[in-house]
């Protein structure tokens, strides 16, 4: 075929391939160079790394020459091998590589020509179209990336080892030291001339600073700073005396025959000068090591039952090495009376190691020291606290605090507290031994009065040892007596008691004493927890020892359950009062709790819930029935008032309400659903609808008043303060009932409701006072409000309109779960909002709105 005309598609396409072809050729040359010469640069990398890490200075001249000769021979052999293997790629090889990267190999097509059809116009037309298509494809040519992988030539990856060595030399070595090879390799005759004079030096800060060393040969600035105590090491090479140093930062060592190595410790700022060839000079500034410091975070506090704790913060510029807390008696702050009036015997200071962090920096940290010092002579006395910290440089930081009282165990049992006071006096001075023995004799004069035998024997043993010495007791005797008194006090305070009630009484007494002494919140919380645990143990013992009785609705198990809930409610209220700082009220409620438990013990030890009822129990149940009937009468009066004010009001669920409550129909008639719901009161007095059916509201009120007057004549506890108060309250209830009776007869339902509310309140207060009177008759003491909650709870707890227990038995709280109480609170809020809404409606009668406002005033 004929050649394409110049400047045809083929020539233009080949002209555009010049740069891709050149890049392809360069990539192929790089591939072949890498495969041929990779051992050369690997050896060079390793040699440079060795020189950078000071291989030259560590070798003798003979070894250095030998090493360099071996290195030169190895490089020559590797270079020769590489030159023999290396071959530059040709243009055709590069063109073929580029052509293989494109589909259809367009470059070969452009350089080809048809074998037949030279004279056929159709064939020529097809060939021209093919060339144009290949030219367009060749125009998109891109040089391929060179393949520089050497895994087949270097299966052990030695090139990476060499590259890593070079990287380490750049990061951690000194590349400038490679020039030492040229300085060391000098042709001449003497060894001194062969090596020539040179030097090097290092500045090493103290280890505790954690700072890196400095290489003097690389410090090109005229000055630098280093911590005090840094060590400068200087080493010279070559002819002795040619290179020397002068400095005033610290004393130089005395001259010696070995003048090649010298060192100096930096003690102050000054100059350091290297005299001789390549001499240098620096102005060195000393970084002073600051003294450590320590401060107390907050106050020295007690951690119940008897531990001392405080938090502190220590700081230093580099780190704290150790610390101590020293406690000394502050004699000037001691209230010198009783056993402390005599001069104290010398007591060594108490030294405690401050806790240090196990990990992390010690430059600044905070820690807490917790130690039990209850048995130390300084416990509960004013002391001075000295905190001392030391750094690695030996510098000391100290601070002193006055502590009004070194926290120790507080004893709330009176006898235990007295024993601990005698122990303190003996440890204060042995001169108090005679006085302490006399007081201990007085404490043990009547061992039958609640003193445990083991405690008594320990106290008597202490007395015998105190009185045995003719003059001052020995230190050993003093320590033995202190140990005996401590053990006796601990047994009295938290001893191993088998009787649950005794443990409960002790917990109550300790809590009362703690409140009187103004104990800390932590101590109060711990004693409250002990009281709660003792309460649970006691109630569990009562439940386990309860004898099964007859199948009665007011059996012992139910009463026990009610009492436990009441007790828990009282415990919660006592804790709230103490948290609010109302200690007097908390003490009153604690006394009431104690009286309640004594009454429960009395019932448990007597005939109990399964035996016949006492007159007091019968009277209390009669008053409970009267209270319940009065509450139902008030509800009926309120519903009738609503019917009168809103005659057409809807009454959803009226039938069910009548079935449960005996609701009155408009006009004062009572529904049939009331029958059977109210039983007979005590002593045959009318209480239910069986006798009240067909009675008006005024007649029912009169019947309740007469029943209350009869019950007043049979009330026990007359002649006591509580009994008289109960009668007075019941008289107020009877007068309020009589007033309500008259108002009901006159048709004044709103006024009658107010009088009935006063009667209900007086009835509840009278029942509470009656409980106090019954407790006084049975125990001979003046009990609190919590009298025998479990024995006098009603058979069917009354519920107010919100579904809560009305508390008409004088009990504290309710046995409902917290979820039920939350529901009751929600319903009470809804009822209050409804009352406010109705009282604001102007279309309602004025009489109803006035009654609603009086209800709101009670809230």
Question: In words, what does this structure look like?
Answer:
This protein is an alpha+beta fold and 859 residues long. The chain folds into 6 domains: 9-168, no CATH class; 193-287, Immunoglobulin-like; 293-403, Immunoglobulin-like (Sandwich), CATH 2.60.40; 411-496; 615-646 and 695-785; 817-859. 50% of the residues lie in helices and 12% in strands. The strands form 4 sheets. The chain has a 4-stranded antiparallel sheet with strand order 2-1-4-6, with no helix packed on it. A 4-stranded mixed sheet has the order 3-8-7-5, with no helix packed on it. Strand 14 (383-391) and strand 15 (396-403) form a beta hairpin. Helix 14 runs antiparallel to helix 17 (583-605), helix 18 packs antiparallel against helix 21 (697-712) and helix 18 (615-645) packs antiparallel against helix 23 (749-779). It starts with 8 loop residues before the first helix and ends with a helix. Keywords: Coiled coil, Membrane, Transmembrane, Transmembrane helix. Residues 487-603 form a coiled coil. Residues 643-734, 775-825 are annotated as: Disordered.
Mean pLDDT: 76
Q: How helix-rich are the residues, as a percent range?
A: 40-55%
> How many separate structural domains?
6
Residue stretches low in confidence (pLDDT < 50, at least 5 long) are 1-7, 187-195, 544-562, 602-611, 652-691, 780-820
Strand content: 5-15%
Shape: flat
Sheet with most strands: strand arrangement: 2-1-4-6
Give the N-terminus to C-terminus distance in angstroms. Answer: 120 Å
* Biggest sheet architecture: 4 strands, antiparallel
């Amino acid at each position: 075929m004929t050649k394409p005309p110049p400047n045809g598609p083929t020539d233009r396409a080949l002209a555009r391939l010049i740069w891709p072809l050149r890049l392809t050729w360069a990539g192929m040359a790089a591939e072949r160079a890498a495969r041929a010469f990779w051992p050369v640069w690997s050896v060079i990398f390793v040699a440079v790394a060795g020189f950078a890490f000071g291989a030259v200075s560590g070798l003798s001249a003979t070894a250095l020459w030998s090493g360099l000769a071996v290195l030169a021979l190895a490089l020559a052999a590797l270079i020769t091998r590489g030159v023999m293997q290396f071959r530059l790629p040709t243009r055709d090889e590069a063109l073929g590589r580029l052509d293989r990267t494109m589909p259809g190999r367009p470059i070969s097509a452009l350089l080809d020509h048809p074998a037949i059809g030279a004279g056929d116009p159709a064939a020529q037309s097809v060939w021209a179209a093919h060339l144009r298509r290949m030219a367009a494809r060749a125009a998109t040519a891109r040089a391929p990336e060179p393949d520089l992988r050497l895994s087949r030539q270097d299966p052990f990856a030695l090139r990476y080892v060499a590259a890593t060595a070079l990287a380490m030399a750049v990061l951690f070595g000194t590349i400038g030291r490679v020039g030492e090879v040229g300085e060391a390799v000098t042709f001449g005759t003497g060894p001194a001339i062969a090596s020539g004079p040179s030097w090097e030096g290092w500045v090493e800060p103290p280890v505790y600073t954690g700072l890196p060393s400095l290489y003097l040969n690389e410090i090109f600035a005229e000055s630098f700073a280093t911590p005090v105590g840094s060590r400068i090491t200087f080493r010279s090479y070559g002819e002795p005396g040619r290179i020397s140093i002068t400095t005033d930062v610290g004393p130089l060592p005395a001259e010696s025959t070995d003048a090649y190595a010298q060192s100096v410790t930096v003690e102050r700022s000054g100059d350091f000068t290297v005299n001789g060839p390549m001499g240098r000079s620096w102005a060195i500034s000393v970084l002073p090591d600051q003294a450590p410091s320590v401060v107390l975070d907050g106050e020295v506090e007690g951690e119940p039952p008897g531990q001392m704790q405080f938090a502190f913060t220590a700081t230093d510029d580099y780190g704290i090495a150790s610390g101590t807390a020293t406690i000394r008696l502050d004699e000037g702050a001691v209230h010198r009376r009783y056993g402390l009036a005599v001069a104290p015997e010398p007591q060594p200071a108490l030294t405690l190691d401050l806790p240090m962090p196990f990990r992390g920096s010690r430059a600044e940290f905070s820690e807490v020291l917790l130690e039990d010092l209850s048995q130390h002579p300084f416990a509960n006395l004013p002391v001075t606290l000295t905190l001392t910290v030391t750094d690695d440089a030996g510098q000391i930081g100290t601070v002193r605090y006055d502590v009004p009282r070194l926290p120790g165990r507080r004893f709330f049992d009176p006898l235990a507290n007295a024993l601990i006071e005698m122990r303190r006096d003996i440890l204060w001075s042995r001169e108090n031994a005679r006085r302490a023995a006399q007081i201990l004799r007085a404490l043990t004069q009547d061992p039958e009065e609640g003193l445990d035998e083991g405690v008594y024997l320990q106290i008597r043993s202490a007395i015998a040892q105190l009185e045995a010495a003719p003059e001052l007791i020995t230190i050993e005797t003093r320590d033995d007596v202190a140990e005996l008194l401590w053990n006796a006090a601990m047994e009295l305070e938290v001893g191993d008691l088998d009787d649950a009630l005794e443990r409960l009484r002790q917990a109550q007494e300790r809590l009362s004493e703690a409140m009187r002494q103004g104990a800390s919140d932590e101590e109060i919380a711990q004693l409250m927890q002990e009281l709660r645990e003792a309460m649970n143990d006691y109630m569990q013992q009562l439940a386990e020892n309860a004898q099964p009785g007859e199948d009665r609705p007011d059996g012992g198990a139910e009463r026990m359950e009610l009492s436990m809930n009441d007790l828990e409610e009282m415990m919660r209220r006592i804790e709230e009062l103490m948290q609010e700082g109302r200690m007097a009220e908390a003490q009153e409620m604690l006394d009431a709790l104690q009286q309640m438990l004594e009454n429960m013990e009395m019932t448990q030890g007597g005939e109990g819930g399964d035996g016949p009822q006492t007159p007091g129990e019968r009277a209390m149940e009669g008053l409970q029935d009267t209270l319940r009937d009065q509450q139902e009468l008030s509800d009926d009066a309120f519903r009738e008032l609503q019917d009168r004010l809103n005659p057409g009001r809807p009454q959803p669920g009226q039938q069910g309400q009548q079935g449960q409550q005996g609701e009155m129909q408009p006009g004062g008639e009572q529904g049939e659903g009331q029958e059977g719901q109210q039983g007979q009161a005590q002593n045959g007095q009318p209480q239910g609808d069986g006798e009240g059916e067909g009675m008006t509201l005024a007649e029912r009120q009169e019947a309740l008043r007469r029943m209350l007057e009869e019950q007043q004549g049979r009330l026990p506890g007359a002649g006591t303060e509580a009994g008289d108060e109960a009668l007075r309250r019941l008289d107020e209830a009877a007068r309020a009932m009589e007033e309500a009776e008259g108002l009901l007869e006159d048709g004044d339902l709103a006024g009658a409701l107010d009088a009935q509310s006063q009667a209900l309140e007086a009835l509840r207060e009278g029942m509470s006072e009656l409980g106090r009177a019954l407790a006084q008759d049975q125990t001979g003491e003046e009990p609190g409000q919590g009298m025998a909650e479990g024995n006098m709870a009603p058979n069917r707890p009354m519920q107010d309109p919100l579904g809560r227990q009305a508390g008409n038995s004088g009990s504290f709280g309710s046995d409902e779960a917290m979820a039920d109480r939350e529901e009751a609170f929600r319903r009470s809020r809804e009822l209050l909002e409804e009352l406010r809404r109705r009282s604001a409606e102007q279309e309602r009668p004025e009489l109803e709105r006035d009654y609603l406002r009086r209800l709101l005033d009670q809230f």
